[in-house]
Amino acid sequence: MSYPVTLIPGDGIGPEVTEAACRVVEATGVDFEWDVQQAGGAVLEEQGIALPEATLESIRKNGVALKGPVTTPVGKGFRSVNVELRQELRLYANYRPARSLPGIESRFEDVDLIVIRENTEGLYSGLEHEVIPGVIESLRVVTFEASERIVRFAFETARHYGRKKVTAVHKANILKMSDGLFLDVARLVARDYPDIELEEYIVDATAMRLVMHPQSFDVLVMENLFGDIISDLTSGLVGGLGVAPSANIGTSCAVFEAVHGSAPDIAGQGIANPTALILSAALMLRHLKQLEEADAVESAICSVLSEKKSVTGDLGGNASTQEFADAVAELVAAAV
Ligand code: NAI
Ligand code: MG
Q1: What predicted TM-score, i.e. pTM, was given to this entire model?
Q2: Which pLDDT does position 2 carry in this prediction?
Q3: 272 Cβ below 6 A of ligand 1
Q4: Active-site residue 204, yes or no?
Q5: Which atom of ligand 1 is nearest to the CA of 260?
Q6: Is-catalytic flag, 228?
Q7: DSSP states of 73-95
Q8: CB of 71 sitting under 6 A from ligand 1
Q9: What's 259's DSSP letter?
Q10: N or C: which end of the chain has fewer CB within 10 A?
Q11: CATH T-level assignment (fold) for domain 1-91+242-336
């Protein structure tokens, strides 16, 4: 059986790390039919088609995409390709696990948590306007429907992975209506999951507790902007952007990508760390129910990281992106 997957190389270090990730997942023996599609990049931006319809069509048809990072121009031009992709395909849940990895220096050695971020509304609704010159309003939209969907996704994830607790992160002390609604919904959904504890925690206090006692968290669920910030923080707890994977999940499609961006400062040099996208590709394997293969990729990454021999410069080694990927692929091939 073969698996058709849309492959978006992206720009900057995107093509380098996607090539690496493809090599590793192919080493599992799973037969992928890559459907290569474009998104972002200077040429498409200039033509005004940052996210071509063909790319969306391909993902809708295949249901699964592996995506490299794409550059987003700041403060002008098109909306972020990433935000548009999530909204067009209704990828309502952003799933970002943060687990301590061997051989990666970080403050803690026993972090194992999952951040689930609402991906479609909040301050990312793109509703901004000028009231009078010098006064801008941005609308932070919170709906019952999207809150219910994301909290349920969090509880389902917790149940699926045998987790014990879901923390609903909020600012309902100040945002009494919007985050008040989010909390009401969380309590309502939690009734369907008596085996899993619901914890409520204010976002700023969550940030502090995460850097002091990250082990006290299990699954965390929150709205869009809080999730954006908190999930970068949790990436930092386990070694930073170079090693942080993510998945964007909807009802009919899923897009797997690294948390990091296109890293223009190191693009084209063959030194980008492919770990984050390789781990994202492992999440993709799991999504495709290739569980042993996903485990093989994750343990191969862990072995290569703990040996430190074949890792990239950001992790203290001097291997190229390709050498790193080859070392992982070799172990994967031997394991399956
Ligand atoms: P960035 O994540 O691209 O880079 C931040 C720093 O981390 C840089 O010093 C970079 O060299 C380093 N870095 C990132 N990934 C690395 C890797 N795999 N290996 C080694 N070092 C790595 O963040 P930045 O600079 O804020 O964003 C650059 C562009 O990427 C922006 O246009 C941004 O909008 C876009 N972006 C795209 C994302 C996506 O497509 N999902 C996500 C985040 C940002
Ligand atoms: Mg972000």
Answers
A1: 0.93
A2: 94
A3: yes
A4: yes
A5: 2
A6: yes
A7: -SSSSSPPHHHHHHHHTT--EEE
A8: yes
A9: S
A10: N
A11: Isopropylmalate Dehydrogenase (3.40.718)
